[in-house]
Amino acid sequence: MQTGVDHMEAVQTGGPLSEKEQKKQEKKKQKQEKYYMASQWQLMIRKLVRHKAAVMSMVILLFLYLGVLFAPFIAPQGLEEFSATYGNAPPSKLHFVHEGKWVGPFTYAYTIERDVFEKKIFVENVSEPYRIRFFSKGSPYKLFGFIPWQTHLFTVDNSQREAGKDPVVFMIFGADGTGRDLFSRVLIGSQVSLTIPLVGTALSFILAVIIGGISGYYGGKVDMVIQRLTEVVSAFPTLPLWMALSAAIPPNIPVTQVYILITVIMSLLSWPGLSRTVRSKFLSLKKADFVMAARLSGVSDAKIIARHLLPGFMSYLIVNLTLGIPNMILGETSMSFLGLGMRAPATSWGVLLQECQSIGNIANCPWKLIPVIFVGLTVLAFNFLGDGLRDAADPYK
To answer: Is the pTM of this model over 0.90?
Structure first.
């Protein structure tokens, strides 16, 4: 005997439903029930996965941060390795066949010649191939910062190289002015350029939530004082203020301290915008019935803020956090490019771009602009990811 629902479906379709159609209808109902019973976070994830640009950006950022994690392993050279012979050398070419015979991946050594203007020209010496070895031993380093290691992803076999000559290096991105492998420096520099923004944005986020939350929740004189302070900090131009504070960093302190100080500087100047947003959200939510009920139940202010108010717009905070990271990346790159951020012997993408301040240097060695590609790619990836999170934050839209 048909149920009432089956009878209505049969009437609407003009006859009884087949078993296949009944299963299809049942799956559709289960899908609808699962959708309406899903939490806000589950709905956000579902919509984010359908945002192709955001998914592609997440994949790109995953590869970039894997490069940060395994930079010393992937890089064929360390920061202190260089060869004056290969200063401003162009990217190395990858070969597989030597004199008609299959050799496998290898490269040739460079010989230096001069043109009619006495300009240095790098020419491949095709008389002898130098094979590229994978997972071979090279210069020592510390994996993850504390594990002594010597294995690199790839190195050049210099066993047949004459004594006294500089070793051959397979330079994917060419070399800088002092003969250091640019590919290795881009990878190792990403450890600074991609971690300072994350740490700085996290500190800025904590400051914004605490200051904005106190201002919006308590109001009155506390709110007035905090808002005047926020206006003072917001009134200063960001880049000049970064430069002024960075110039106050002593030039002879260790690299680790410079890293910490730059991170603190960037976080102290980036909290006002998000702080005002948190304040406005608290002002609108603190009079809600569930907040009043929590107060009457004797719940402390800290628990009300942490368990009732912040979760109400946490999705927006995550979006804001994601969109704030690109500004931090550009800020650190600008500071280092101007010589006010990271300094040698440390490196970052901004430090690598210092050699691009000369137009002649760019014209003769365009490969030195490769760090710009990584900066732009990272900024775009974070922006697209933030755009996808912004759309997913309103899953019922």
So the answer is: no
